[in-house]
């Protein structure tokens, strides 16, 4: 596929925060390929395998985690990027890194951390992703962080659009390495954002059906889903129900991907450069209006039937309590922190609270449960409902 004129070009990157010695470079990789590889090789990325996607600390082996979700987002993002002539490596890197700032127990854990640190600036998983990649994940001798390209960091900071009021974490990082927060990001970042929607809209259906929280009959109350289900039954009338359901999910993903490609091609017909993308004043990689309306209906359905299911809400409340009590314990008795984190604990606020927040945010579900048991002498109950 020919590179589109408005694609991000690794040869024209705005560079990295810290200059790097290019002597002895390992392999013939582009700058964006290096970004992707640094993310994949990071400890923070590996921890995603044990962090909540939809179901908290699931006992079943077949449910998505943040890691498998990120891999599915990357697969969808690359397909869209290739069709549009965008840089696939940058798109993939953005998809792989977009959830790297999530704490244990998903949004329940984030809510607890935000509340615990409210007086010290709060917590936001999007900004935390930048904080992890730019400061906390530090495998190199020369500098803190992974020292990723400006384009990768810009895309993570703004994949949901310009940031008018950045919180403390993003403000500090932007001061050190300005990311042009007032304008739209590259199309690669926009594709990563819509690929995230496509992935979780559909694989959460798969997991919800598998867990018994969603019923097919209820799902078919959405006419556009029912239309596809009838087609699946017509094409595969003798297939087992489980295979038909997985085919439905695949069909839904394909429809959304094709819609985004067609809509973005229309939106970029008169776009000549990547600067035009950033100055467009709106996102260009989107669903069509018709598909956007369907996707919003699907999201409302999923919130009503899955995310806000009474059993899910009760489990989330128990998870929030675990994170809140861990934070309180570490703040009251720093000796409860592991030695390296205790030694680096700042003496003054707000840095002290943010340091504890960094430690908790990096935890996996499993590690948070183990730490709770170590501190309080018992394992928290009722954290897994599948």
TrEMBL record:
Entry superkingdom: Bacteria
Matches recorded under SUPFAM superfamilies: HD-domain/PDEase-like
Biased composition regions of type Basic and acidic residues, renumbered to the chain: 14-33
Gene3D superfamilies per record: Hypothetical protein af1432 (1.10.3210.10)
A Pfam family recorded for this sequence: HD_assoc
SMART domains registered for this protein in UniProt: HDc
Database matches in InterPro entries: dGTPase, dGTPase-like, dNTPase_2, HD/PDEase_dom, HD_domain, PHydrolase_assoc_dom
Residue intervals of the HD domain: 66-201
Protein's GO biological process: dGTP catabolic process
Assigned keywords, A-Z: Hydrolase
Region (Disordered): 1-33
Gene Ontology terms for molecular function: dGTPase activity
PANTHER family per record: DEOXYGUANOSINETRIPHOSPHATE TRIPHOSPHOHYDROLASE-LIKE PROTEIN, DEOXYNUCLEOSIDE TRIPHOSPHATE TRIPHOSPHOHYDROLASE
HAMAP family per UniProt: dGTPase_type2 (MF_01212)
NCBIfam families given in the database record: dGTP_triPase, PRK01286.1-1, PRK01286.1-3
Family, as annotated: Belongs to the dGTPase family. Type 2 subfamily.
Protein name stated in the entry: Deoxyguanosinetriphosphate triphosphohydrolase-like protein
